[in-house]
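tmp note - YifB family Mg chelatase-like AAA ATPase
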Amino acid sequence: MSQHSLATVHSRAQNGLQADPVTVEVHLAPGLPGLSIVGLPEAAVRESKDRVRAAIQNCGYEFPARRITINLAPADLPKEGGRFDLAIALGILAASRQIPHESLSDIEVLGELRLSGAIAPIRGALPAAIKAADAGRRLLLPLDNLGEATLAPAAEAIAAERLGDLCEQLQRGPLASSEPPTLEPTPFAQADIADVRGQHQAKRALEIAAAGGHSLLMVGPPGSGKSMLAQRLPALLPPPDAAESLEIASVASISREGFDVSRWGQRPYRAPHHTASAVALVGGGSDPRPGEITLAHGGVLFLDELPEFQRQVLEALREPLETGQVTISRAGRQADFPARFQFVAAMNPCPCGWSGDRERECRCSPDRIHRYRDRISGPLLDRIDLHIEVPRLPAAELSGPSNASATETTTEVRARVIRAREQQLRRSARPNAALLPNELDSLVELSEMARSILVQYASKMVLSARAMHRAVRVARTIADLGDSAQIRPADMAEALRYRALSA
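out:
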């Protein structure tokens, strides 16, 4: 048997945000023609033999009439999708000496093949590019994934459009790295907070939430501006740094939607419908996929009509809100996904929406209102830092002329938010909302009067230890916005007012 009947090509599988190395071994042996794939391939990988055969033949190359065995090592790592098509095709061509095997030694290969030989994009190109750079190899991948892959620090990528053209380049010599495309991020179409009339308390709470990374619950009748306020939160947030931008882009890269390179450096905003299942929100499936909480990583997750979500869906949020990550476990595999998102929710005060309104009469009985609000558990409410009422504005204020000059814009508020966030990062290297309980005593300084106000309120309203800690974190953010090194009585009093709805 010729030594050239065996070829090895490096590739990578996808398991959550991990891009595990896979070695594609191709062996040609005498015997009846056939092709078998071993190494725990899933259905889409097993079907690649038909795509690979058609692509090789349609590009003018010979598909060997021999017994072909393809091993995807390690054998205990599940492999899914069409991402190994290109590696398998190049391995077959190298083993049959139609292309030089030496040209593949320092590269990793990813790409799905069309029957015509065109190379289609794959998901997870960015995490694979990061790992390939760490391993000291270049990454050969579809042209459509080039911009995404070059976002990885120190990554060298080789883009290809068609299998036939790629093989011709390999026959001429080693492949040259592709020039990174010029990235032109799309300007973020900011929805300005000045567009929201009135609602001064709600705007203040939104500023506090943005500055400290706090979660927020808005309660008010239909049409009071809750959704408008939530949509304006991403523009108030500080821009992500390079490491955070890379993590946000990596999450988008493995999603079904993929990553749009024009969105580089922008925080995500996710607003799933209240009919979303627990799997859609948290993630899951036989092949673990990220849910909405992971797709909102580094940005905002907005749940409108909060009580309309299924109870088990809402309860699934409790652990990610505390830990900032979610683990999806299945019989054959486990995947960890980041989930550090800013949680914003909105709800009506009652099923009809008009409880407490001065002009509209509520049709709900007290028992019905109680059952409606009980759809949100106490432990979940306890994990939300800011609770505010968003009342309906009088018709005269809505229909009158807008006094835009007296209303702060997103740019003005964002400047204060960034300044306050910088103070937090210098003090503790994290936003106030992420401070651990054991850090509060050493990093947060309360005046004696502020501490007394906290103790009296907690005793009167029977606050849990978690609620007290969250109130202190909010007060620390309010003090940062006021450029105060110490939490003052007014800061603590304002922070406690934002817990009145859940007390």
